[in-house]
Amino acid sequence: MLKKISKIPFKGTPEQEAQLRAVIEECKDDKSMLMHVMQQAQAIYGYLPFEVQTMIADGMNIPLEKVYGVSTFYAQFALSPKGEYNISVCLGTACYVKGAQELIDRICENLGIGAGECTDDGKFSVEACRCIGACGLAPVLTVNDEVYGKLVADDIDGILAKYKA
Amino acid sequence: MEMINIKINGMPYSVPNGITILEAARYAGIEIPTLCYLKKINEIGACRICMVEVKGARSLVSACVFPVNEGMEILTNSERVRSSRKTTLELILSTHNRKCLSCVRSGNCELQKLCKEYGVDNEGRFDGVLPEFNFDDSMAHMVRDNSKCILCRRCVAACDNQGISVIGANARGFDTCITSPFERKIQEYSCISCGQCIVSCPTGALYEKDSIADVLAAINDPEKYVVVQTAPAVRAALGEEFGYEIGTNVEGKMVTALRRLGFDKVFDTNFAADLTIMEESQELIERITNGGKLPMITSCSPGWIRYCEFYYPEQLDHLSTCKSPQQMFGATLKTWYAEKMGIDPKKIVSVSVMPCTAKKFEIGRDDQNAAGVADVDYSITTRELARMIKGAGINFNILPEESFDSPLGEGSGAAVIFGATGGVMEAALRTAVEKITGKTLDSVDFAEVRGMEGVKEATYAVGDLQVKVAVASGTANAKTLMEQVKNGTSEYQFIEIMGCPGGCINGGGQPIVDATTRNFEDFKAKRASALYTSDANNANRKSHENEAIKRVYSEFFGEPGSHKAHSILHTSYVKRKLYNN
Fold this sequence. Notes:
The complex is a heterodimer. Chain A is α+β, with helices and mostly antiparallel strands. Chain A is 44% helix and 11% strand. Chain B has three domains: 75 residues, Ubiquitin-like (UB roll) (Roll), CATH 3.10.20.740; 87 residues, Alpha-Beta Plaits (2-Layer Sandwich), CATH 3.30.70.20; 358 residues, Rossmann fold (3-Layer(aba) Sandwich), CATH 3.40.50.1780. A five-stranded mixed sheet of chain B has the order 2-1-5-3-4, with helices on both faces. A four-stranded parallel sheet of chain B has the order 12-11-14-15, with helices on both faces. A four-stranded mixed sheet of chain B has the order 13-18-17-16, sandwiched between helices.
């Protein structure tokens, strides 16, 4: 799937930048460490926006396109930030046959964003995930660490309202 | 060389060990089709068109990357092979914009050719959902239309080979597309406009921005005085578009064709190449004698200039301040020539035919308007000229051979070799050495700087001076020399750099050489030899002995490096950044 590129302004802090620069400094002589640096960068920032990828490209002396190519190839890298509340909808087989697609559709409709995106206020992000091992509760979603199971689409607005308050 | 025995289609052959099946098949007189393979540039075995059957192998193997071994039995034309290739073509066509009739590559599209050869009669066999196609015309020189892209990645490899990498394969699977980072327009990045991606593309996904309509409109406007100049490398390649052997010099027919197209004057960039040598050698002598910035680096190639501006913005004072020959020509045309002929420069339309796509960018640079109007109004590629000739119904092959108009059509042998890597250096040496020593050269050949190697160097004794020079072509090779300049370890006084590998003869605006020819023939050396032959046959082989050049200085510029020459023939550069342009 094409990854959504966030339009939310980059809000990196000097502390985060110092952390990333330290990682790059350690790895810059070995180009094969690119994936590792990108993983660390994602751990620091939560995602890999333009500003972070150019820092990596310049620091590692690798063309930006090569960094970006890797970030779009592997599912593990995100180009949009996670919201304050990250909603993960399980699209594993059991959840899917129990109607998980309707859940994610309803969430996207409610929040006005697509899967893999974050609301402009940075409050909510939505993603589809693989089986989380709670098939007995199918269809299931998590909001950060809270688990909601045996859902129907009409439950969604109520769940979101709790976090919007 | 160790030889091994193999069988191709049942016939025994002895071939060198270690070569690929693709190369071995040449010994058997068999051309295996390829779409992604470009020798030494893109060897990834991705397109699956070159599949062949190898006895004992479980599946078909890709000939472009699979090495031969002792006793190997290969079938290149079995039913299994042909059916595989046909299916691959049909699959490629399932997401291909099949608007072939109006495609700029119709007739020399490698995909089209193979579809014909393999009898693809149902182009829509696998039609289905289409991915989103990117379309990017943000650059002054080119268009990317991904609806015609077959994802062979030759353009990506060509860009990597230049050390630029502003395009790449992004996303994965069905969504894979060749784009620039963060799906932004390529103009935001450090594309140097060299056009090597265009000449690598097997289909019509990449092409130059076409100015033919504008040029024809100018020709048809009775108020306009339309003048054309042709770069040295154009004459060495234009013939290929009309079926001539690679390396045929078609200067005379080209001049005739341009006249029949209706240009008011047909002049030669060679005149301006000689002018460049006068200015550049003067600048070099001044820098050497007055302790100026060394090494001095040539500024003829606008792709190289852009590379330097993007990647070495702190080293711009090493660049010669000379405008490129194209721009010097336009500047002289609209000042001296206009004045001499009593023509209002605003009525002159200055057209250039170039082997280059970066020239389309260069004409729009700041400070390229000596007469208050653009030095050059339209820059078209060799390919565009060929299309103009064909479109006008001119039968190029039976044209008589005519000569350039005077005086801006006069060029020396030194000028014509500008089109090959090392040519500017050699031309400059011919003039600089005679100027410094005051003696006539015994031989004007500086063979050390000729040839297709990426980096060349030589040392010459010039009077009491030891002059150390280097020549690089292709920006990845330029990087080698520029790192030394940056680190302060460069030992050279003078460096020539051309943006494209091999120089202008392999420019991004030249006729497209299909992959099979590129992989097995040294087309760059052949085109270059046409220029060196022309040089050798020229009665005058030195820029400073060009009579028209002598006149333009005595009547107009005074001395090389004069104030007037500086204001008309020299320019400045800008620091650029890699992102967010």
